Please model this.
Amino acid sequence: DSGVTQTPKHLITATGQRVTLRCSPRSGDLSVYWYQQSLDQGLQFLIQYYNGEERAKGNILERFSAQQFPDLHSELNLSSLELGDSALYFCASKPTTNTGELFFGEGSRLTVL
Amino acid sequence: GENVEQHPSTLSVQEGDSAVIKCTYSDSASNYFPWYKQELGKGPQLIIDIRSNVGEKKDQRIAVTLNKTAKHFSLHITETQPEDSAVYFCAAPTYGSGNTGKLIFGQGTTLQVKP
Model:
């Protein structure tokens, strides 16, 4: 158990809909990262937050947005969903000590029908 | 641009043999090179990492080597066991203007260890 909690574990929805994925980082970790893992693809970096502020952005679609709240949990919002958005979405947190290690949750599997 | 390339995409070895996975990176400012293992249905987990001030690091059956001049690093697993079967990812941070460093992952290598 990495200590990072993601909900929901599975989500099935239709094209055009909007979903919210939630992540609770490990206790004390201020950094949260979001990654997308599509079938047969690696981990694509989406966005990073540190203590509530956006720190780095990857190739995140304009239809996607995220935020980190004062209690440090984070949400990834996906809107106007398309079939190609079906993927595993991982959240990871990083401790403030500069070890560099990311602790990943077990992911939220999104299926868009 | 920021890029981490990983080879091979699949690797099948007999139990007891060694496995080697290689990665190259593009950002010369990268200074930290982790390897993650992802088992089926789980999130990736760090198995070993190396910083740019050393050329090699070992932890029991796994080792990582780094060649900063050539911008490549490799994962070596010796005496492979069936439980080593998983997807392995290399990663490297990339730094742009005003960027604190985002960790970019390779495409992954599916390792199968045959009993």
Summary: Chain B touches chain A at residues 6, 32, 34, 36, 41-46, 49, 89, 93, 99-108 (CB under 8 Å). The mean pLDDT of chain B is 92. The first strand of chain B starts at residue 4 and ends at 7. The radius of gyration of chain B is 14 Å.
